[in-house]
Design a protein that fits this description.
This protein is of the alpha/beta class. It has two domains: about 35-220, 3-Layer(aba) Sandwich (Rossmann fold); about 225-280. The chain is built from ten helices and seven strands. The protein has a seven-stranded mixed β-sheet. The longest helix has 18 residues, at about 5-20. It is elongated. Mean pLDDT is about 85; it is low at about 195-200.
Length: about 290
Amino acid sequence: MARSGLAGLLERIAGALERLAPAAAPAPRLEGADAFVWQAGEARLLPVAAVNRVDLSLLKGIERQRDVLLANTRRFAKGLPANNALLWGARGMGKSSLVKAIHAAVNEEMPRALALVEIHREEITSLPRLLELLRQAGRRVLLFCDDLSFDRHETDFKSLKAVLEGGIEGRPETVLFYATSNRRHLMPRDMIENERSTAIQPAETVEEKVSLSDRFGLWLGFHACSQETYFAMVEGYAEHYRLGVPAGRLRAEAAEWAITRGARSGRVAWQFIQDLAGREGKRLARG
């Protein structure tokens, strides 16, 4: 075959292959909303019109955590250095509520400064792909994963470690990663203890497991609240939503509710308020 004929054939083959190849994912547009959910299967960001959150002023008993995370987020929104944050500890004490409330508070101070993007735990392996898209987005992003943890034999944590700090490209300067977890080291305690007892080099093996949480510059602990703090949560909600229930009755019923639940926390306080408002025929508008 003549050289010119071969060149033409190769061009036709190349053109056919280009047509068969999937189109490159377009850079995400983050102008339409302030919050999005990452859908890994479709490689797209789904806008969230109304975020399920409470006002920052209603989160009681976590004032120190609030102040630290708010300052960190403000710095990030202004283009200054800021740390990834791990919010860990007791269930129902406002970890995810705090992230969403702070996002809203910062955007109120600096309109449209930050987009909130949630990635589900089950899709954490798609995090490198998401970060590559967000790198092109042209807007500062709080990337949020709720209830992040890893069980025995899972290896997803290794890719997360590289993305947070150790990869060649690293985390984009326009993206900050916030995660919540019930576990300080994101691993079950029995898994860490088992590694210590069975590994040939137990110190090195355990270090690999627990070093994931070290990638977060901020560790904010959340602990079970006292009864007075629980009452402050209930009273704050009742006042905010103008339920008009006498203080004595409010505390008595809130205490009974906590006993039936076997716990005191912000989540238990909110569940009590929902029950109370329903019995009183009052509507609750969260925004």
